[in-house]
Amino acid sequence: MKTDSQQGTGTLDEKIIVKTKHGELTLEQLAEVQPGLARLMKEIGDRFHVLYHAAKSGNWRLAEHEQKVTISILKVGATLRPKYHQDITAFIQSHLNHLGESIKAKDWKQFERAYMNAVDETNKLHEKYGYGFIRYTLSEEPPSYYDLSAKD
Length: 152
Hints:
Four Helix Bundle (Hemerythrin (Met), subunit A); globular
């Protein structure tokens, strides 16, 4: 990494330059291309759909995998968009961790209750941030691109 002053430009506001195999980029340029929550939420919604139908089919290992990946993606979102950090962290702790507990217990009734509570909270958060027009609804149809049969 080089800064502008190391390159001899002598500017006071130094920019950090990162060299990649494709060329040099500033940190500002790298920050600009990071995905926003809209892009991440598309993947989260898909995984949340798979999570539900995997659990319903008794494929608890797939459900656990999707729950963990959903949390991982949300943490990326919380890092990239600090204004949502507190609510995302609270959502993970109060809803997704409960889902994880019901998955470990292989308890469908507890899972379904926790899942629906998470959906309700998701829609409340969309409303809070001015995205009330985005309402998550669970498709009754399981995804056709996964074998959801129980593997445990």
